[in-house]
What we know:
Helices cover about 55% and strands about 0% of the residues. Helix 2 (about 30-55) crosses helix 3, helix 2 (about 30-55) crosses helix 4 and helix 2 packs across helix 5. The protein has one domain (about 1-220). The model is unreliable at about 215-225 (pLDDT under 50). It is mainly α. The chain has helices at about 1-20, 30-55, 60-65, 80-95, 100-120, 135-145, 150, 160-165, 190-215.
Amino acid sequence: MTFVFGAALLAGEISARWGANLWPADWAIWVQLPLLLFIADGLDYGRHRLQHTVSWLWPMHVLHHDVDRMNVLKSGRGHFLDMLFRSLAVYAPLALMGVPASLMLVYAAAISVFGPVAHANVSLPVPSFMHRVFMTPQFHRIHHARPLALSCSNYCNIFPIWDLMFGTFTSPEEHSFFEYGVEDSTQPDDFLGQVLAPAESWRGAGREAASASVIRRPAPSETLRCP
Ligand SMILES: [Zn+2]
Ligand SMILES: [Zn+2]
């Protein structure tokens, strides 16, 4: 959480100094706020989907998925490179647009609330249409399901409309119980091992690619995890 707010403050500073004048800062705040949250969540949707589809981005994100049960603390379980990549993907475009720091902080506050709620081991008693309006625990736990067919969906972190628009929405009404985690996880149990795991994956992928080119077949780690 400290990282998210720190990145928001830094992005706000960069925006004030070097940001272009593209943000409609003179619009009413009740228009600016939802617009900012919508755009930021769209950027985050793109970032998240890339991490599931581009093989060299997956090693940064896999730690977040390497859980066998859900609770509010799992929201913050992630590699620091994952957090860095997420901040860059969302805050850098906003800063270049000239979004003010106050709005960046509102986005940081929003994901600080939505994140833990989405990972909570509860089912919110909300009408079914709400799973298509805001990210709910029922919606996000599908993304943490062990079967790839399920985890390759529900990427958004606030507004499921991004998943609905790009065809990656899976309805919580169709899937309510499953195992969590990653099928082929090789994540170490110790802290240092987890810190070094992405570098180990990238080194291993390099070796596989080199041997695959000799026998003319794609390396397993080069194949996409999700469509
Ligand atoms: Zn994910
Ligand atoms: Zn999650």
